[in-house]
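Q: what sequence does this backbone want?
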């Protein structure tokens, strides 16, 4: 075997001390973000209190201070478990009763911080031996990244982006940097779960790809995987794509108000806006104020439209605009990342908000009014049906 791997045990007291002192740490450059929820954490501590075995962790001592002998040790695999243990010892969460399964632990430890535990349970935690695989110090950092990737290759708890994060890639670095911009907080498209599971980085990968080559199918991760590999050593060195994206962000941010934020805060819709603005930039069109003005009317009509609506217009322009709204809605309802639906949304929004004359606003206003009237009738019908159900139950 090329490298040696030694198995040993280390108690929690020693691991906690090394972690707090910074001698033991998880390298964020290839590790996933912290994603465990409260239930996961409580169940791990319960396992320890029951003195049952937990999965082994992988440590790699990267370097040692020749003067003090202190070593810096990476948690190659097992950071969620180590972080959870340290957090509990630091009283950062309680053992919520609703997540505990063992009756004795539930009776003795429910809803308690570490500091509230009886001394015998604290001792169990301090003395608990964690099984460790110590990785050969001769391994390089690249070896460690590959090892982490291989360890998690078939781990279905890791999503594709979390696995990609273990790879060195300039494209990946650019995408992660893009995900940190305050713009994403303002448009509200990423949840806290998205951020934990690196879905924000994955989405920004898609925006970089859009800026680089246009609309592509993103129903699987192959395209992003290819970019991670193809642009491992160099990507957008002169910041051309980055500046293109930042400019589009400024335009989108200027379009946000109370009437549009709900629409813009959808991943599929903001992707479409990037498509439209990128095309305008490529065509040297700078009528962004007109885009914004028409967009407000488009969103107002779109938000009141429902797929079940069936409206017939004798006026050809109204009939055509109604068909465009319906087409856009269908392309936003399912298979939103399919190439065909991405193209439909882009072409429709570009046609209405960029290529159209100003009279498009009047058409959209009429549609908004008609859709609003239909919604009133629908809501009235739904309320009557609900009242009928209540009457039947009472009878």
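A:
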């Amino acid at each position: 075997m090329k490298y040696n791997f030694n198995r040993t045990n280390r108690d929690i007291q020693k691991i906690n001390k090394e972690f707090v002192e910074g001698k033991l740490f998880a390298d964020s450059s290839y590790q996933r973000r912290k994603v465990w929820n409260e239930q996961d954490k409580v169940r791990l501590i319960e396992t320890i209190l029951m003195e049952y075995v937990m999965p082994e962790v992988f440590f790699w001592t990267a370097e040692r201070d020749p003067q003090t002998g202190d070593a810096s040790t990476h948690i190659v695999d097992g950071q969620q478990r180590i972080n959870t243990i340290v957090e509990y010892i630091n009283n950062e969460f309680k053992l919520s009763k609703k997540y505990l399964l063992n009756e004795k632990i539930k009776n003795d430890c429910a809803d308690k911080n570490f500091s509230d535990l009886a001394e015998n349970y604290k001792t169990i935690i301090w003395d608990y031996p964690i099984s460790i695989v110590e990785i050969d110090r001769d391994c390089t950092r690249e070896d460690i990244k590959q090892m982490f990737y291989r360890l998690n290759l078939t781990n279905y708890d890791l999503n594709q982006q979390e696995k990609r994060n273990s790879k060195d890639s300039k494209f990946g670095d650019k995408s992660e940097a893009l995900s940190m911009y305050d713009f994403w907080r303002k448009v509200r498209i990423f949840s806290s779960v998205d951020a934990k599971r690196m879905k924000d980085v994955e989405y920004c990968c898609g925006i970089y790809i859009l800026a680089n080559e246009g609309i592509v199918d993103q129903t699987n991760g192959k395209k992003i995987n290819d970019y991670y590999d193809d642009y491992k050593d160099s990507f957008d060195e002169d910041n051309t794509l980055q500046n293109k994206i930042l400019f589009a962000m400024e335009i989108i941010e200027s379009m946000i108000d109370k009437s549009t934020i709900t629409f813009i805060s959808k991943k599929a819709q903001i992707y479409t806006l990037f498509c439209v603005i990128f095309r305008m930039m490529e065509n040297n069109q700078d009528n962004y104020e007109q885009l914004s003005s028409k967009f407000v009317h488009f969103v107002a009509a779109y938000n009141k439209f429902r797929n079940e609506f069936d409206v017939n217009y004798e006026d050809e322009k109204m009939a055509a605009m109604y068909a465009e709204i319906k087409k856009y809605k269908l392309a936003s309802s399912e298979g939103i990342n399919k190439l065909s639906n991405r193209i439909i949304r882009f072409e429709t929004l570009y046609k209405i908000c960029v290529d159209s004359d100003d009279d498009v606003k009047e058409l959209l206003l009429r549609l908004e009014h008609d859709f609003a009237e239909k919604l009133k009738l629908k809501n009235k019908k739904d309320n009557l049906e609900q009242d009928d159900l209540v009457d039947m139950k009472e009878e």
